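Project standup — Tuesday

K.O.: blocked on the structure for the chain from last sprint. Re-posting the sequence here as requested.
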Amino acid sequence: MTENAAPDEHVPGGGSPAAPAPGRPPTFTSWLRSRSDGELAALLAARPDLAQPVPADIGALAARATSRNAVLRVLERLDRFTLQVLEAVIALGDDRLSEPVGVQTVELAEALGTLPLPGPAGGGAASGRQGSATEDGAAGDPLADALDTLLELALVWPDRGRIRPVQVLRDLIPHPAQLGPPARVLLAGLPHGAAARLARDLVPDSTAHTPVEAVATLLADPGRVLGLIGQAGPQARRLLDGMAWGPPNGTVSDARREVTLAGASSPVETLIARALLLPSGDDTLTLPREAALALRSGLLFREVTTEPPPFEGTPNPGEAVTRAAAGQAFTVLRAIEELLERWSQEPAAVLRNGGLGVRDLRRAAQAMDTDETTAALFVEVAHAAGLLGADDRVEGEWLPTRAYDVWRETPPERRWLRLASAWLDSDRVASLNGSRDSGGRVRNVLGAGLVRPAAPQARRDLLGEMATAPPGFAPLPGSLASRLSWRRPRRQSPVYAELVEIAAAEAAALGLTGRGALAEHTRPLLEGEDDAAARVLAAEMPKPLDYVLVQGDLTAVAPGPLVTGLARDLALVADVESTGGATVYRFTEESVRRALDAGQGVADITALLERHSRTPLPQALRYLVSDVGRRHGRLRAGSASGYLRCDEPALLEELLGDRRAQDLGLFRLAPTVVASRSNRAALMERLRQLGYHPVPESGDGSMRLSRPEARRSDPADAPPPPGGSFRETARAAVRAVRAGDEASNAARTPIPLPEDGPPGSRNAAVLEALTRAAKDGRRVWIGYTDTDGRQVSRIVEPSGVDGGFLTAYDATRASVHRFAVHRVNAVAELDGPEPEGGDGVPGGDRRGAAEPH
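H.V.: unblocked you, prediction finished:
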């Protein structure tokens, strides 16, 4: 591309680029339109907010890409060097006297103190190249790479051999490189008399048309600026040196005073008289950009670093790091499963503010065998993953969700991936639990006070930076902080630093890092490659076992994680005594009775243990099971207020004579039946406390045995399962944008529709036109009112009209769609693609680059 040529235009829908119309200047919109589908997809993948919702056409995409909030979001992702390059484009691209606004790459290289890009001046990225730095022979050139990044993010764009920033950047970065405004801007704000006085004193022989132009031309010459500085004297020079590297503003009284060269009596007045300081307010003087650049010898920054500081830390074997992280991941799974299983039987209460109480959190920590801070993290992650939710009762309770049952049956690596992905994307910070907000209220787990919108990005920044270290390398916290300060300079703040510190601790607790280094299964997770992450983690995860080791002290040891069925059966017949590398279960009378109450018999319990134990069952355990089973169910409790029935009158006689049972008010009705003043539930509970083993019975005399009820709730917002990439969505969005752009700008001949006439005549005309297009197999343009009331343009290929609906292929959706005919407000025949769009608007966009739909 030559320096003065406009970028080639992309024909909507594909095909060869069309030549730009003669004399039509390029616009940001036309440059976006000239980008290939792959480059637009890369833009949407890098800036996902631009595709939510999908823009109607290229003009809408341009308006969204240059909006204030969208540009602010992408600025936060630039590293220090790329941000310096962008500031250089803004600083050097302002106020060209005779050339197009913008800057050439050779000027950037000189101002940044880097080597010029290969090739002729104005070549490479400045000429609007579409490829990568490698394609232009500039592989490894930091400036070329930074410009490619800015072009890919659509923060700058090429214009006739120069690079231009999007307009909103001049407002968002008003002092690029700590420079003040150009002299022309400051001079334009002076009264005409003040500007004329400066022109008479400084350039009396100028042939410029206006005083502003005369003085601005003078200050545009660095040699003449240095001459003016030399005339000002040493005190004035020291004042300028203090302002040269910013900030460019100083406060004085009566900044707008009129000063002549002859009447200047102080260093400040000397500088004002020579236009080296110009008023920008009633009490503010500003150093013009040209004067600051002259003082800096043409350099924009004191220090330009193209790479972050080197890592400092400790190397570790990569296998050891991944193994340690996988072990922690297994601990997370076991802890969350243990808690949710317990809460399905004995749920925690929901506080009035929607959170979890301190006592319930303390019990949860005991159940998961961890501290309260880690317990809070696990509870929050389970909630974020959709495994935990509050029921809809007035007295709310925290319960596992129905998604938990499905999650429990999936492989361990997939279960962990769901938890890790939920943590990465969650805006809640569990470590803030127990702190106080600005109103003095205590923040609770699962409550509303733990939301931090910047938390997801802080986590990804931290882990992404750790991913740049060699495998197994554990960076020191200070080293990581320094690199993050270079990598994300616009995000640095005490809040961001706190979020990064918290993210490091939480990542270790969840198994994303091990020994202070990033685990190998975390690297593909950060790239959205969940299958690869699952493969790496599965190789290191402990394999589920289908056996235990029953010991003579009435315990069973599980030397690893158990398969789901065995874990649930064993949890029913025994209590968990300790966890760690191995889990210890203890058999007690209460645990065996729990299994019997659930409907299992003595033979069932014995067979379960014999089937899954690698050691012989000890005699003591057999005696315990048989003894509890022999006593279980001898008493039957029913409803009168309550009664007891027993086939052994001697046992009832023993109970009636037991002084501990006097509070039950027992009295005999028959040799095998005793009644009570207490109801059945209270009666059974008290008898169990006394060491008896009653079971409930129904009205027909049969025992009512059942497993404990497993209660479930629905999550408020169940997250999508992990996996997938935005790249596919971005490509689909580009197809829709191209189709919408074609529909908006296609040359067309409207089909007349009656404005007046009998009711239904307009719809009849629309039906006739669409039916004729379907019969002829022609594409047509339609104006359509969608269900949200928006007026949209579509190019469709009709296949039939039936029952008041048009069935047609819609390129915007890339599928067959049905349109309600009464919503079609215009129909036009296509005359073929029009290179520049309709109505002769530069760039082919009738709304202009900055006007959204």
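K.O.: great, moving the ticket to review. Residues 318-345 form the longest helix (28 residues). The mean pLDDT is 81.
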